[in-house]
Specification:
The protein is α+β, with helices and mostly antiparallel strands. The two termini are about 40 Å apart.
Length: about 525
């Protein structure tokens, strides 16, 4: 009974914010040949089946043969959620490692790998794995929720105060121009930051390692189109916002501003998982209601706490607070209906609520939501009883909702409970995969199995625009500065002009630093580094 009650509360908790761009990730459901299998004859291709439509990250789908060389040929083909990688003709006996990095239909990268064998396994068998995550630079990973938090915060600073100014603002009070323009700046800044971060996020590179080609790839994607559309709509709304702030807006201005607000809010679900669900019109509409209701409620609270409650007279507050209370009630009702629908889609089952990170964060959000609704209910009772001075209660309500906003910024980075629960468990750690960038080259590094002990490392060098580049000399070191383990040189075997391998032993768990120096001409060389968390 207790778990059922928590489940209902957690479903309701999803009402506060939209699942937004990071609400779900594609997962690898099965492969052909199956992971870990032994097949009698070489297949013409290796096929991966994901939980939703995907797009390959250029150059990051490959098959490594028993000889350590590339065993794939040509370009992979994609049909919705199915990706096929052609296998070279004459593939011989032994174990083959397939590694992939794709972009799920909700704009999030997923990487992993698995192995299969032809006729019999090799003496040294690669780890078998699969999953829903992807190696991402820790700085990029930390900034992603920040960019979303900024965007959401900016939207509510625009929507809530503007709605108050149109319907409830006393004529004697100055209008909150600084608040609205801060919202405009936060939406613009958060969107630009998100567009840039998407490039290293997708490729797995460092924060400042995105090339022009990487950024161009992002801008031409659905995620990029949504971000650019949001910026364009924001620019179109600025003249109308000026009229509202100067109290010169007309009814037609209000209608146009309302339409622009809805279009801008729509760019968040269109860039995320709602548009990739089995019923996109429904899930996009639900997500849109989430976002607009949140902006009305939380944005209105900001306007009340910073302007109306401290500056309004007793008579003004007695007139406007009951109206605001009704508005807030309607917003909460919309949030509840849309939130329960969204949570049913993303959680699905009771065990998934308690057994997944997504579900656990949803429970935390539910507890915070209960506190907010309790404060809101008490404030409403005081208002109806003729006590409009409820600034402390409303301020407390706003503070907790700001925490919920932060929790949601992390929640939307998680794989939804329903998706995670439906995926087969991985039998080993994911191979580490990352893309490092310099002004001379782009280096793709794969470390398998990325655990304590013996590891195999494959390195692929490309020009900054993604074409294979000839490397004249490779130098690789590995060390652990936190434990005073000095850099140790790794023996490198160059297989082709752009591909080299190395074997290294990592004796202890922790954060290891890999450094790569590549000489690509008689005088040109550059060094890049990458930290790897070894368990």
């Amino acid at each position: 009974m207790r778990k059922s009650a928590l489940f209902i509360i957690a479903l309701t908790a999803a009402l506060l914010l939209p699942a937004a761009p990071a609400s779900a990730h594609a997962g690898l459901q099965r492969t052909d040949p199956p992971s870990g299998s032994i097949v009698a004859t070489a297949p013409r291709q290796v096929t991966l089946y994901f939980t939703e439509a995907v797009t390959p990250v250029p150059g990051q789908l490959r098959i490594i043969g028993p000889d350590g060389k590339r065993a794939d040929r040509g370009e992979p083909s994609v049909e919705g959620s199915q990706v096929s990688i052609p296998l070279r003709e004459g593939a011989g006996r032994g174990t083959y490692l397939v590694s992939y990095r794709i972009i799920s239909d909700d704009s999030h990268p997923v990487s992993g790998g698995f192995a299969f064998s032809i006729e019999a396994p090799s003496t040294s068998t690669p780890g078998v794995s699969g999953g829903t995550g992807a190696q991402v630079d820790p700085v990029v990973s930390a900034l992603l929720p920040v960019s979303r938090y900024l965007g959401y915060a900016g939207l509510l600073l625009i929507v809530g105060p503007v709605l108050l100014m149109i319907g409830l603002w006393p004529t004697r009070l100055a209008r909150p121009g600084k608040l609205v323009w801060a919202g405009v700046g936060l939406v613009a800044g958060g969107t630009v930051l998100a567009l840039y971060l998407q490039a290293p996020y997708v490729t797995g590179g460092p924060l400042f390692g995105a090339s022009g080609a990487d950024i161009s790839e992002v801008l031409s994607s659905r995620f990029g189109f949504a971000g650019l559309a949001r910026l364009a709509v924001l620019a179109a709304a600025i003249p109308l916002l000026k009229r509202v702030l100067n109290a010169k807006n007309t009814q037609s201005d209000q209608i146009i501003l309302g339409v622009l607000t809805a279009v801008a809010a729509l760019t968040w679900p269109l860039a995320g998982h709602p548009s990739a669900s089995p019923a996109p019109p429904l899930t996009v509409a639900v997500d849109l209601v989430h976002l607009l209701a949140m902006a009305v409620w939380m944005g209105g609270l900001v306007g009340l706490v910073l302007y109306l409650l401290p500056k309004g007279t007793e008579g003004e507050l007695r007139a406007l607070m009951p109206v605001w209370s009704r508005w807030a009630g309607w917003a909460v009702a919309a949030l509840v209906v849309a939130g329960v629908a969204q949570a049913l889609i993303e959680v699905g089952t009771l065990p998934a609520l308690f057994d997944t990170r997504y579900g656990q964060l949803l429970i935390v959000k539910a507890v915070l939501l209960a506190i907010v609704l309790g404060a809101a209910s008490l404030a409403r009772k005081k208002v109806l009883a003729g006590e409009p001075k409820v600034r402390r209660l409303v301020a407390g309500e706003l503070a907790v909702t700001a925490v919920i906003l932060a929790v949601t910024a992390f929640l939307v980075q998680q794989t939804p409970a329903r998706t995670e629960a439906a995926l087969p468990a991985a039998s080993a750690n994911l191979p580490f995969s990352s893309t490092l960038n310099s002004n001379l080259f782009k280096l793709q590094v794969e470390l398998d199995p990325a655990t304590v002990g013996n590891n195999s490392m494959h390195m692929y060098a490309f020009t900054p625009d993604g074409k294979p580049i000839k490397v004249l000399e490779w130098q690789v070191t590995v060390g652990m500065p936190s434990k005073d383990i000095a850099p140790i040189e790794v023996a490198v075997l160059q297989l082709t002009d752009d591909h080299a391998v190395g074997e290294l032993t990592l004796p202890t768990a922790g954060t290891w630093e890999l450094r790569f120096t590549l000489r690509v001409s008689e005088i040109d060389q550059a060094t890049v580094s990458q930290t790897v968390q070894i368990k």
